[in-house]
């Protein structure tokens, strides 16, 4: 995300402190989740992932299920990495004194929105407008 057009709507560092704590906690939890997903999707063998310790021949349906689970985990991992990048961006905005200002219009993002999505870049009006544009 880009920098804010205006930091007039930004919260002071003391006002942003509760969000800083929330973002750090969320980031820590998501790092654990992404590490687990990466381990389960990339480092395990088929038999380890399935808990299969036998030496019996592998059925084609089992291989299909394993591939589906791996692809699902990788897609989930990619989505969580995007969220982690947004959290890091929010932490950087707190550090630079721009947190809480909408990157689109520069207006202050309401606390109720930041309580729900502390890493958001947009106020509800700009987020709604962007959503409408993306839907065409």
From TrEMBL:
Superkingdom, taxonomy of origin: Bacteria
Keyword annotations: Metal-binding, Zinc, Zinc-finger
InterPro entries referenced in this protein's UniProt entry, alphabetically: DnaK_N, Znf_DskA_TraR
The Zinc finger DksA/TraR C4-type domain, residue ranges: 97-131
Chain ranges of zinc fingers (dksA C4-type): 102-126
Gene Ontology molecular functions: zinc ion binding
Keyword GTP-binding: no
Keyword presence, Zinc-finger: yes
Gene3D superfamilies attached to this UniProt entry: DksA, coiled-coil domain
Protein's name according to its UniProt entry: RNA polymerase-binding transcription factor DksA
Organism: Bremerella alba
